[in-house]
Structure formats: structure tokens, C-alpha cells
Amino acid sequence: MADEEQPYARPLQRALSRPVRAMSRMLNNNAPHAKSAIRPPEQSAIVDCALYIDGERQPGEPHYAEALHTAQRRRGFVWIGLKEPRAAEMAAIAETFELHELAVEDAVQSRQRPKVERYGEMILLTMRTARYVEHDELTDTSEVVETGDVLMFIGEHFIITVRHGDATRLAPVRSGLERRPEVLARGPWAVAYAVADSVVDAMVDVATQIEEDIDAVEDQVFTPQRGKRRAHDRIQRIYQLNRELMEFKRTVLPLQRPISALATGHLPEVPEEIRRYFRDVGDNLARASEQVLYLDDVINSVLAARLAQVSVDQNNDMRKIAAWAAIAALVTSIAGIYGMNFDYMPETHWVFGYPGVMTLMVGGSAALFWGFRKSGWL
């Protein structure tokens, strides 16, 4: 019976499976469109793009390729501001402005070492940025310094600034320069100076704020402590502040060589009048560097002083323990001697033996206590 039903079951099964397969193909074809409709569009890394002619920002929001063509034709320049660009978008910009692939790779990746490099007719300037993080009280996990990166591609008719992190914002720099068209008229290197000056000024402010934190920690170190846990917290705070200072030190000190190269004429592309401005930036950077080195010595001295205090406190504790152990040893030795079960021991059958031994214990302990107290052990 089953063999007679099988020929009719197979055509019926194939007939039912056809619409199921068709529906599956429709769902699979529509699935990517549904996902793309739900997926939010990727935000562009271009924060601002402007064309400047004779120091004046031109109206409108042109595409950077069109703006570059106009700048080359009318002897102006384009300023593109990027924040944490993706590789694909940076590759499109690099193709338009003919940027070197190694420089583009540095722009996509953050935490680059400060440097100035030439790639053909373009100069790449890399700087670390720093910002002081406000906090009510310094703890062993406080973030004191926030760091980031700013890279600048500088050409004859363009400057591209790439920012990683929020340590230094460039929107105030742009708005400040747009109020000074005589400075913008000097070209892309005037923008490079303004950005470098803003970065270095922020470093000077950070150094001043860290110095105040170190002064507060120094005052805490030499105030009377209240408990061992509080003393331990002080060491943790000093160590955390020292780590933050080291991070800031790695931001400030390596920047001296690139700024010096821009200020001393190693790059002929930098106009002479702009070099004077870079020398002023170098002076401010040198002041920040000297302050960082001074603060590094101070925080290490404070840490050494705190560790010395802890060592002294531990020695005092050990002396107290040793003094009390000596007092306990006297009582224990007397009690141990008279606790031995011998028949022939002195004063065992004396009427005043027990009071005499107790007097000896108390008197000996009092004498040891007075001696240790006089010597400063207790």
C-alpha cells in the first residue's frame, strides 16, 4: 500500500516545495536591502572644508576637489579639518591632493611620535596634544592628562589637519584666524603656526595645573597622617600623578626637534616671516619642557620622601613591637622558671614567695617600660 502511494506523494512534495523555495529567494534578496536601510550612514570625518582667497573665507561649502582646483587657479589655499578619518575616506582625499601613502597611513593611525617629514612637495608635521582633566580630588585612579594627536599635511595650496582625540580642538583656532585675514593671507604655513601655537599653549596650561596638583600632594605628604590606610592612599596618589606626568613628558619633550626644524630654516618651504612665529612657539615649548623636567624632579623627590616616611614609620613600629616583646619576655621567663615542678627550688615554701614574684614581674616590667619610653622606643 505504501508502494502504491509513493508515486503520487513525490509530485505533491515537489509542488509544495517550489513556493517555499521561491519565498526563501525573495527573502534572501531583500535581506541586504533591509539591513542597509536600518544601518545608519557612516559619518564623514570632514569637520570643515573652506577655501581662502587673500585671507578671506569664500562663501559656500565646496567639495575639496573643487576647492583645490579653485585655489590653484586663484592663488589661494584649502583648509580641510578631519577628525579620526577612516582609511577609505583618507585614501580618497590622498588621491585628490597627491599625498604619500606612508603619510596617509600615519594619519589614519593615532599616537604618532612628533616629527616633521618631507614627502615630495608636501610637508607632514605630527604633534602630540595634551589637555588637563579637571577633578575635585586626586585619587589613585584619577586621569590628570588627556592626550591626542594632530597631524598636518602642508602643501603650496592646501593644509589638511587631522585630529585624534579631544585634547585640542581646532575650531577655535579656525575662527580666530578668520578674524585675522592678514594672517590667513600668508598661506597654509600661517595655519600651521596657529595650530602649533594652540597645541603648545595648551601644554603650558597643563604644566601649570599639574604643578598645582604636585604642590597639593607635597602638602599632604608632610602633614600628620591619620592611619595606615590613609598613608597607603597617599603613595598611590603620588604614583598615579607620577604616571600622568610621564605621559605628559612623552608628549612635550619630543616636540622640540620638529618645532626647532621649522623655526631655524631647515625647511625652505617655511616663509621667513612665519619662522619668527615658530621661534616664539619654540620659546613657549622650551618653557613647558623646563617646567616638565622640574616637576619630574619634584614628584620623584616627593615620592622618595613619602617612601622614607613609610620606612621610618615601619622602623618605629618594629621598635615598639620589640620593646613590648622584651617586657613580655621578662614576665614569661620568670613565670616559666617558677612553673617548673621541682621540689627543691628557692623560695617555693616561703610565705611571701608569690607576692615577691609578682612584685618582681611588675617592677621589672615597669623598669623596662620606663627605659624604652625614655629612649623613644615606646
Question: Can you tell me about this structure?
Answer:
- The protein has 11 helices and 7 strands.
- With 378 residues, the protein is of the alpha+beta class.
- The radius of gyration is 38 Å and the shape is rod-shaped.
- Mean pLDDT is 81; it is low at 1-40.
Architecture blueprint of SSEs:
Elements: H1 2-38, E1 46-53, E2 56-57, H2 64-74, E3 77-83, H3 87-97, H4 101-108, E4 115-119, E5 122-132, E6 145-154, E7 158-164, H5 171-178, H6 181-184, H7 188-221, H8 228-252, H9 256-263, H10 272-338, H11 353-375
Parallel strand pairs: 3-7
Antiparallel strand pairs: 1-2, 1-3, 4-5, 5-6, 6-7
Helix pairs in contact: 3-4, 7-8, 7-10, 8-10, 9-10, 10-11
By DSSP, the count of extended strands is 7
Q: What portion of the residues fall into strands of 2 or more residues?
A: 5-15%
Return the string of H and E elements.
HEEHEHHEEEEHHHHHHH
The biggest sheet amounts to:
7 strands, mixed
Mean pLDDT: 81
The helix fraction, in percent, is 55-70%
Structure at a glance:
This protein has 378 residues and is α+β, with helices and mostly antiparallel strands.
Give keywords.
378 residues; alpha+beta; 11 helices
